[in-house]
Amino acid sequence: MQMTFYFSDTAVLLFDFWSVHTPAGMALSVLVILLLSVLYEAVKMGKAVLLRRALLTLPRSLSRESLVEPEETDTNPPEGRWFQYHVAQTLFHVVQVVLGYMVMLAVMSYNAWIFLGAIVGSTLGYFVVYPLLGRG
Question: The pTM is what?
Fold first, then answer.
């Protein structure tokens, strides 16, 4: 197996059934890897938004009274909301790890077109999703 980047229209990506033998198949594969990279960046930013929301649910004062005795008018205590955000962050993390490994393994095919698709997708994803971070 060649261990340097090369330009070719043939490659096997991630699974044996994802075998590319034509220029059109390579273009479609590059598009799929590009979209996976964009999705990876979106999940990464989504995790950051969830973290900020989770931190906002924590009480401002860490006195014993605010932690032990929640207010009677609050039907959904902050501790419960914080746990929900934590569970959501955990799920986002799992998705992020899976997407990251998929993109990494695709790049490890050493096909330069796939590598460029991953780089462009990551750049495009960051460029599009990062401004949305301030709105979350």
Answer: 0.81
